[in-house]
Specification:
With 633 residues, the protein is an alpha/beta fold. The protein contains 19 helices and 20 strands. The protein has two domains: 278 residues, Rossmann fold (3-Layer(aba) Sandwich); 199 residues, no CATH class.
């Protein structure tokens, strides 16, 4: 919430800018404020929001444990302290007591309080677990953040339940009635609930979640239902006194499931009075060299609008295990009028889509990617105007999103890496098909996710790994659509641009260079050679085919002839060097350099390195730097 508030006040203080399409003149842009508010905002981001609680682990597990950020840690620690205080203070023990000894008073009062507070924590536990959590909408915090809160609330509630059970067991044992108590329904149902809560805690380990997610999910649902039933019977003797703690759990679960069904209907059905129901259509293709499935989904609903930052849950209901659903980040979209084009926007003026790329690497093996390349415009004046139009931007960029008319329909593009379970079955379905692509039945549930305001910043750096390119492409597509619309305005007119961004740097590392080829030939084509976009591609696998390298070298001459090279290095990127280089360059330019947004979407180690690098720059006093992370956990 603090992060959302800081972002709101920071972006709202910017002043609108009117853009001259020809680039002759612009109204003054707002200068960064370095007053009290700016200093406070920078301190909060540097010391609380960006860094991990300790060390550099955040997305990476530390001894199979998730390490939150410092802000998240403060919330978690505060909740632990609150529960510790509520469970540990103001017990009124008095003597003489006609019914309990001093020791028995301690057992009884601690048992009652821990049991009641454990019940009180259950609605919080349940609401933080769902994907349709209202606090996600209110705070703007990520699902992974609420997962951290969910796990800690679960630990606290379970510990309280165990203490409650132990204290009452000691109390009954003192009376010599411990064995007899197990014949009472309220007793053994309460014991069962404590045991199932404990098993839920143990069987929710990161190891099990990562390796056997479907088993983890099934166990989680079954044991949760058993726990609720056990708790209803446990407090049945109080004639509904504790039911107000339990019925919300049922209501939250029902709300989440109903919301999922509503989202499914919203995405996949379009009712027309004059015709039949229109459903979702899906085309899947598998690139074996890139080990990548490209899903192109045309939703049945015409109300669904694609937007950067969205992710959807995908189902194949007519297949084996049709109930399985997995989240995938939206990788791009095609409008109905873009038939035959890539998922990106149209290619900007001054760019030739016919050539090949030279792969470069400093002290590394050189390869050449054999895909269409880009040539410079032969008209210097048109090129100058093109570059100029991309250098002027304005405010309210946080509202920049893809828009389409009601008569058009977007086709959503997803990039899927076959890993296990459903994704492997989808890959096998594509391989068995005799055609390059296969029509399959996929349902969408969504959209979920937050739109990061990267267009509020003059300089944007995308750091992505593998299929994490999905986290960057939609923002680049929104940028290109915005700047293209400004450029196409009639000569001499002025228009307010929807983006402040002037320069984009894309750093993409993936195992197979074939994946780079595949996307450069399609979705990334409009961004190759773009005057405002700098691309850095890396192939990290040590098992790249030597034959492929030799085949690519045949086209090296063509690449030199175009005068345009595309650097693809063999090895891992030096993220620290790249990010600090951009930040230092912008900072050296002063107010004219503007601000920098860094967005990561990729492996845990990559995200943690980017976060640590941004934190280092902010500690050095580099202001106007913002870090975003696209992650699901």
């Amino acid at each position: 919430m603090a992060n959302r508030l800081v972002t709101h006040f920071f972006t709202s203080r910017r002043v609108s800018v009117v853009v001259d399409i020809e680039g002759r003149e612009t109204s003054p842009t707002s200068k960064p404020s370095f007053g009290l508010y700016s200093s406070a905002s920078h301190w909060v981001r540097t010391n609380l929001i960006v860094p991990a609680a300790f060390g550099s682990h955040h997305q990476r597990l530390y001894f199979w444990c998730t390490i939150p950020t410092r802000m998240e840690t403060l919330v978690v620690v505060a909740f632990w302290i609150l529960n510790l205080i509520l469970c540990g203070v103001t017990y009124e023990i008095f003597y003489p007591n006609l019914y309990y000894t001093t020791a028995m008073q301690h057992w009884r009062y601690i048992a009652d309080r821990t049991g009641i507070i454990s019940y009180a924590n259950l609605p919080i536990l349940w609401i933080f677990s769902g994907r349709n959590n209202i606090f996600l909408w209110l705070t703007g915090w990520s699902f992974s953040t609420f997962n951290i809160f969910h796990r800690h609330v679960a630990r606290i509630a379970t510990i309280q339940a165990v203490i409650h059970s132990v204290c009452y067991s000691a109390l009954e044992a003192n009376y010599g009635a411990f064995a007899e108590s197990w014949t009472e329904q309220y007793w053994y149902m309460g014991g069962m609930a404590t045991v199932t809560m404990s098993f839920l805690l143990v069987l929710s380990s990161a190891w099990l979640r990562e390796r056997f997610y479907e088993i983890f999910l099934l166990i989680h649902i079954v044991l949760s239902v058993v726990t609720i039933v056990g708790l209803f019977y446990h407090t049945r003797i109080f004639e509904g006194e504790y039911d107000p703690y339990l019925w919300p759990l049922v209501a939250i679960w029902v709300f989440d499931r109903v919301a999922r069904l509503v989202r499914l209907a919203y995405c996949n059905l379009h009712l027309r009075l004059s015709d039949n129901v229109v459903g979702t259509k899906t085309e899947a293709s598998y690139d074996q060299d890139a080990n990548l499935i490209r899903l192109e989904v045309t939703p049945g609903s015409r109300m669904l609008k694609a937007r950067a930052g969205q992710h959807y849950y995908l189902y194949q209901p007519l297949k084996f295990k049709g109930w399985e659903n997995h989240p995938f980040t939206l990788g791009g979209w095609k409008s109905a009028d873009q038939s035959g084009q890539s998922a990106g926007a149209s290619v900007p003026p001054g760019i030739d889509p016919h050539a090949s790329y030279e792969i470069k690497g400093k002290n590394k093996e050189v390869q050449v990617v054999g895909v269409d390349t880009l040539a410079s415009s032969s008209d210097p004046s048109s090129e100058e105007a093109s570059i100029s139009s991309f250098k002027h931007a304005s405010s309210n960029p946080q509202e920049l999103t893809h828009t389409s008319t009601t008569s058009s329909q977007d086709t959503l593009v997803f990039f899927v890496r076959p890993y296990s379970s459903w994704t492997l079955r989808l890959r096998d379905e594509c391989i068995k098909s005799s055609s390059p692509s296969v029509n399959t039945h996929v349902l969408l549930e969504g959209p979920y996710g937050e739109h990061s305001p990267v267009h509020s910043y003059e300089n944007v750096v995308f750091i992505v790994g593998g299929s994490g390119i999905s986290g960057a492409l939609p923002y680049m597509q929104e940028y290109l659509e915005s700047t293209t619309s400004v450029q196409s305005t009639a000569e001499g007119n002025k228009q307010t641009s929807r983006t402040r961004t002037r320069q984009i740097t894309l750093i993409w590392a993936t195992k197979q260079s074939a994946m780079v080829r595949s996307l450069c030939a399609q979705e990334l084509k409009p961004f190759i050679g773009h005057p405002a976009i700098e691309n850095h591609f890396y192939a990290t696998s040590r098992h790249e085919s030597r034959a492929l390298v030799e085949h690519d070298n045949l086209e090296k001459t063509n690449s030199h002839a175009t005068g345009i090279g595309l650097g693809i290095s063999y090895g891992r990127p030096n993220i620290r060097e790249k990010v600090l280089g951009v930040i230092d360059e912008v900072h050296a330019a002063g107010a004219a350099g503007g601000s920098v947004a860094i967005l990561t979407c990729g492996p845990a180690a990559m995200a943690d390195e980017a976060r640590a690098t941004v934190h280092t720059a902010m500690k050095q006093g580099k202001r106007g730097v913002r870090y975003f992370e696209e992650a699901f956990g």
